[in-house]
């Protein structure tokens, strides 16, 4: 299956992405009959499915199994998945420290190994899922496109859950490009432009669809700095349920990284929403390919997407995102 094969300019292929995050073991089938939810079957088919983490509530094997069942039901050639802070058994170091307290009567020291086997072994293969560790990954798609992805499940420490780092630690920039006064800890730093087409992290960058209900911005400033260096075509994340939405941002290209947080981005335009179409199509759609109203200029612009399916009260009422963009031919 390939949903889109038309090249919009020489050497490029229009490619469709279905983007979701923070499903917390809920499936579209759980919304059957709920006309207030766009996250209901069948979800639209795509060339690539991206799930940006929080696959579960607390990282139990039966939760992973339900999520894999859900992912298996989605029609996409390539299905890329990262973990999130709720998927505690996929963070082995965290589970060794906190697992007994988090799982209490259900604690099992072997759960991290069992969970990893589910997501990297035959069960994931049967679902057509590729589980991504932190770092850069390259794929050749059946539609003829080449896809370069940077992935990371980490976020600044949040409510003492998994995949944490301290806010004064820069996980995403190499030491020579580290945020001033931060501690460089990057093992898999984000590459510079033009190495990456899509960034997918669990947590958002600072100031981009990262505000909680109290108005506090809880994204990562180091991640924003790294995204500006990278300038991907698409950057998707979740984590902050109330931040759901999409923005086309234009980067500051003055070449100076050491600027105020708010100066990394020149401006951001929210993607307009047609709720009638969203409910009908079961996704919020945006075309950022050449010639579209929201066209992204690679190296200047990035489409930012917070794809959290759960809303702030943990009800699966937010819509998936369906993104069409141009990738280089393989």
TrEMBL record:
Gene3D superfamilies: 3.60.21.10. It comes from the Eukaryota. Residues 16-242 form the Calcineurin-like phosphoesterase domain. GO terms for molecular function: hydrolase activity. InterPro entries: Calcineurin-like_PHP (IPR004843), Metallo-depent_PP-like (IPR029052), UPF0046_metallophosphoest (IPR051693). Coiled coil: none annotated. This is Ser thr protein phosphatase family protein. It comes from Alternaria burnsii.
């Amino acid at each position: 299956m390939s949903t889109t094969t038309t090249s919009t300019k020489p050497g490029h292929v229009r490619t469709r992405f279905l983007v979701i995050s923070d499903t917390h073991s809920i499936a579209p089938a759980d919304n059957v009959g709920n006309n207030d939810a766009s996250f209901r079957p069948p979800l639209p088919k795509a060339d690539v499915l991206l799930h940006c983490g929080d696959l579960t509530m607390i990282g139990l094997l039966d939760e992973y199994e339900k999520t894999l069942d859900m992912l298996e039901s989605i029609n996409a050639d390539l299905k890329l998945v990262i973990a999130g802070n709720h998927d505690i058994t996929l963070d082995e170091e965290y589970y060794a420290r906190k697992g007994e307290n988090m799982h209490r009567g259900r604690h099992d020291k072997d759960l991290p190994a069992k969970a990893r086997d589910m997501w990297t072994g035959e069960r994931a293969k049967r679902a057509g899922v590729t589980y991504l560790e932190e770092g850069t990954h390259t794929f050749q798609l059946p539609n003829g496109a080449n896809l370069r992805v940077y992935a990371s499940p980490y976020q600044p420490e949040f409510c003492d859950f998994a995949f944490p780092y301290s806010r004064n630690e820069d996980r995403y920039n190499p030491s020579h490009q580290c945020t001033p006064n931060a501690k460089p800890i990057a093992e898999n730093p984000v590459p510079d432009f033009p190495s990456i087409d899509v960034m997918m992290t669990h947590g958002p960058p600072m100031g981009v669809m990262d505000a909680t209900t109290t108005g506090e911005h809880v994204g990562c400033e180091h991640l924003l700095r790294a995204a500006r260096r990278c300038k991907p075509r698409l950057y998707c994340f979740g984590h902050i349920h109330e931040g759901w939405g999409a923005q086309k941002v234009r980067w500051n290209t003055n070449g100076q990284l050491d600027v105020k947080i708010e100066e990394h981005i020149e401006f951001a335009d929210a993607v307009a929403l047609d709720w009638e179409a969203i409910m009908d199509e079961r996704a919020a759609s945006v075309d950022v390919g050449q010639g579209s109203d929201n066209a992204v200029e690679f190296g200047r612009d990035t489409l930012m997407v917070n794809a959290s399916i759960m809303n702030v009260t943990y009800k699966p009422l937010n819509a998936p995102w369906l993104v069409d963009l141009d990738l280089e031919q393989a």
